[in-house]
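Researcher: Next entry in the queue.
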Amino acid sequence: MTDPVDDTVRRVHRYLYEDGLIEIGVGILFIVVGLGLIAFVAIQDNTIMGVTLIAGLLALSIGGALFTKRALEVIKERVTYPKTGYVSYRSDETNRGRWLAPVAAMLLLILSLFLPKELTRISSMIGALMFVIICSLGYRLRLRRFYAIGSIALLAGASASLLFLDEALGAGITFSVAGLALLVSGALTLSTYLRRHPMVDEV
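Model: Structure for this entry, 203 residues:
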């Protein structure tokens, strides 16, 4: 039987993803990073441009995440909260899954010692890490669409590791495909959300 308290907490946390905006934001960020890595492959013979691009990608990974977080808050204030209300989360509730990424990375590192060489490349590890994190989130929140996104990321990483010898190219393709899956899923979810929750003056 389902614990009523756990079910209520789960529904409250799931509200964060009800409009698909987080998926759209993270998807765009992943696509930009992926395209940046692919561009690096094309210009890596130019040392100055290559170093500049890598530095830009590192800055984007940090600054882009912070910008995306703030941008999503602004959009939710204009799109989501006027329709279905605002929910305030305690820090210990929203950050409860932060341990998952380092633990998953450690397990994948250990597992890589026993995997074929083709499946221990960076792209395969990235795809597997995305699979663990996204599917775990889907399981905790009972959001089945996350299983599909995680599976696409896993397949993208494994395929890239088998088809491309260049690590940066494989990683770029993995990020791009996973980002596209997130973007499409988020767009479809947002479209459904807007149809189900029109503004009062739109009814």
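Model: The chain has a mean pLDDT of 78.
Researcher: Noted, moving on.
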